[in-house]
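User: Reviewer 2 asked us to show a designed sequence for the structure in our supplementary figure. I'm pasting the C-alpha cells here. Could you produce the per-position amino acids so we can include them in the response letter?
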C-alpha cells in the first residue's frame, strides 16, 4: 500500500448504523481507475461483499458523494452504494444482525485494478454502532414477557414503543436499539422460541401483548400516555389487532403486513377472536433461482369464507402509519393497505396516513444494510423472493426510517407528570 494514498471515512470512521458515511480518496494519479470494495460478516458468519469502479479526478481524488461508479455492484452516483449493494456469495441469504452490543464492522479497501487480484492501495474500517452512547440495554423476564428493553440516557420523559420486529423465534434487537438511540424507550419482545418459551406455537394470545404494553407503560422514563407499536410482515396483523382491541395503543406503524389475521388463530381472554388466513401452496410459483414467488398465495381475505379473519381496524382509537412496498413479492401489501384505507373511510375514520414505495421489496429495515432479494421463509418452508430493486429499496429505507421517528414523535406526546406519578 502506498503511504501517499488515503481512503478516508468522514466525518469519522465510527458512526451509528443508520447514519451515512462519506468515502473519499486522495493521492491517486490523475484519472486513475480504481476499484473500491466492501466486506462484512453477519451474526451467522455469512460474508457479504460489494465492489464499484471509479475514475479519479484531475487531482487524483475520488468522492463517492460526487463521482459515479462506472461498473460493479451498482453504477452512478450512490454515496452509500457499497453498503446497500453488498451480497452474500451463497444464494438466498438474508443479512442478520440481531444483537445490539457489538458494532457492525465493514472493511473498505481500494485496489489498483478491477480484477479480483488487483494490488491493494488503501483500506479503512467502518464501525457502525447499533446502540448509541448512554443507551441502556436490559434483558426482560417479567411474568410472561421475554424481551429486551432499551432506554435512552437522560431520564426522560420519552415516548414508549413496543417493537414487534418479526414473527419468529429469537429476538432481533437492531431496530429497537437504533430507535432507542433516537430518543424512545423501546421494548422488543419474543413470541416463541426464545429463552424458556415454547419452541413452536399453534395459536397467538393477545393477552401477551397486553401484558407487554402494561410493562412498558410502567417504566419510569416513559412519559407518553399511550405507547407506539412498530411491526413488519406477519407482526403487522398482530399490531393491527393490538390497536383494535387493546387500550393504550396510541400510534401503530404497519409495514408490509396483512389486513387480516394470518397463519395462526388469534385469542384474547381465552376466546378465539380471529381464525387464521392461510396460504394456498399451489399458488406459490417456483423460479429458476430456487426461490418462489408467493405474492398471490395468501387466500383472499375479502372472500365470504375468510371475512372472519379481517381485523376491525375501525375500532382503533390511535393513529396508523400504513407502509406498503409496491414490489413486495411476499404478499400483496399494497392491496391490504388499500383494504384498510377503504374500511376506515367507510367508517368515517381519518386516523391514518399511508406511504407507498415504488420499487421497494418486502423487508424494509433501518437504512444502510445489505438489500435482500430472497431468503428462507419459515412458514412456506423454502426460499422466497422478497421483491424490490436494490437502489429504490435502499432509498425507501432511508425515507421510512425518518418517517417512523416523525410519526411517533407527533402522536406519542410526553408529559413529565406521567413520570412523577410513577415515582
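Assistant: Here is a per-position design you can include in the supplement:
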Amino acid at each position: 500500500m502506498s503511504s501517499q494514498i488515503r481512503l478516508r471515512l468522514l466525518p469519522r470512521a465510527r458512526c451509528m448504523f443508520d447514519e451515512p458515511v462519506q468515502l473519499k480518496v486522495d493521492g491517486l494519479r490523475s484519472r486513475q481507475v480504481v476499484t473500491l470494495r466492501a466486506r462484512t460478516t453477519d451474526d451467522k458468519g455469512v460474508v457479504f461483499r460489494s465492489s464499484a469502479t471509479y475514475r479519479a479526478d484531475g487531482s487524483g481524488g475520488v468522492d463517492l458523494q460526487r463521482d459515479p461508479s462506472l461498473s460493479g455492484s451498482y453504477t452512478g452516483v450512490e454515496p452509500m452504494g457499497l453498503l446497500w449493494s453488498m451480497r452474500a456469495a451463497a444464494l438466498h441469504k438474508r443479512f442478520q444482525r440481531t444483537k445490539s452490543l457489538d458494532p457492525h464492522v465493514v472493511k473498505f479497501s481500494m485496489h489498483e485494478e478491477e480484477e479480483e487480484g488487483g494490488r491493494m492501495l488503501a483500506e479503512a474500517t467502518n464501525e457502525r454502532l447499533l446502540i448509541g452512547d448512554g443507551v441502556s440495554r436490559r434483558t426482560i423476564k417479567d411474568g410472561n414477557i421475554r424481551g429486551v428493553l432499551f432506554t435512552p440516557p437522560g431520564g426522560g420523559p420519552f415516548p414508549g414503543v413496543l417493537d414487534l420486529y418479526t414473527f419468529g423465534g429469537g429476538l432481533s434487537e437492531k431496530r429497537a436499539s437504533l430507535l432507542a438511540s433516537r430518543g424512545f424507550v423501546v421494548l422488543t419482545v419474543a413470541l416463541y422460541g426464545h429463552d424458556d418459551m415454547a419452541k413452536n406455537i399453534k395459536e397467538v394470545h393477545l393477552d401477551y401483548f397486553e401484558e407487554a404494553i402494561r410493562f412498558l407503560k410502567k417504566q419510569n422514563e416513559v412519559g407518553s400516555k399511550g405507547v407506539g407499536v412498530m411491526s413488519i410482515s406477519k407482526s403487522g396483523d398482530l399490531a393491527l389487532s393490538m390497536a383494535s382491541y387493546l387500550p393504550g395503543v396510541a400510534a401503530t406503524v404497519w409495514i408490509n403486513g396483512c389486513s387480516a389475521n394470518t397463519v395462526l388463530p388469534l385469542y384474547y381472554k381465552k376466546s378465539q377472536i380471529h381464525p387464521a388466513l392461510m396460504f394456498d401452496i399451489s399458488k406459490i410459483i417456483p423460479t429458476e433461482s430456487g426461490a418462489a414467488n408467493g405474492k398471490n398465495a395468501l387466500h383472499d381475505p375479502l372472500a365470504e369464507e375468510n371475512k372472519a379473519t379481517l381485523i376491525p381496524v375501525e375500532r382503533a382509537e390511535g393513529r396508523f402509519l400504513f407502509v406498503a412496498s409496491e414490489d413486495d413479492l411476499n404478499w400483496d401489501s399494497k392491496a391490504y393497505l388499500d383494504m384498510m384505507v377503504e374500511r376506515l373511510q367507510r367508517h368515517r375514520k381519518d386516523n391514518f396516513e399511508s406511504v407507498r414505495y415504488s420499487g421497494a421489496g418486502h423487508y424494509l429495515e433501518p437504512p444502510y444494510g445489505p438489500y435482500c432479494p430472497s431468503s428462507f421463509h419459515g412458514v412456506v418452508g423454502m426460499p422466497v423472493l422478497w421483491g424490490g430493486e436494490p437502489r429504490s429499496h435502499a432509498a425507501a429505507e432511508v425515507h421510512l426510517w425518518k418517517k417512523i421517528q416523525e410519526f411517533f414523535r407527533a402522536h406519542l406526546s410526553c408529559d413529565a407528570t406521567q413520570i412523577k406519578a410513577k415515582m
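For the response letter, you might also mention the following. The chain has seven helices and 25 strands. Residues 390-411 form the longest helix (22 residues).
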